[in-house]
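Subject: SRPBCC family protein

B.,
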Amino acid sequence: MATDSRVLAEAVAVTVAVPVEQAWQRLQDFSVAHYYVPRLTDTQVVSAQRQGVGAHRRVYTGKRYLEETVLEWNPGQGFVIKLHKGSKPMPPFHRAEFEYALSEAESDSTRVQLTMKVVMPGGAIGRLAAGALIAPVLRKNLVLVAAGLKHYYETGTAATDADRERLAPAVTVALPSA
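Prediction pasted inline below.
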């Protein structure tokens, strides 16, 4: 997503006590987002392709779903997904992307950075107005996703809301990637 004044980006990072190779094994399983993302009840890969550019999944909250399609795939390092419903972007945005990025941390651990980038409606004025309203919500959700991911990667079990709340202090706000 090109960086311009219409893009609102938020990022968080968390250190996971597993080596990068193990973190990548968990991350590239495109069918388990509901194990760590709050409020998700199921994940279904709906494309024949289960990973890599073009892989497509639906993430469910009850009977409602959002679609996610891989735009970039960097083996061992992460990927970028587009959030949408059919041919339309995730409401209320003109475009929404989510990036998972892995890098080595000390002591055989992995730094996971999660970045959400959205193009706001209303151009630069809409972005400025929404920055005060939407940015804190994006940041809070990213913290809970990162905390859930930390729990899932370290234990192999689905995160609960209590797990996410307990691990949220381990998540830091990061600078979004370019």
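The first helix runs from residue 20 to 27.

T.
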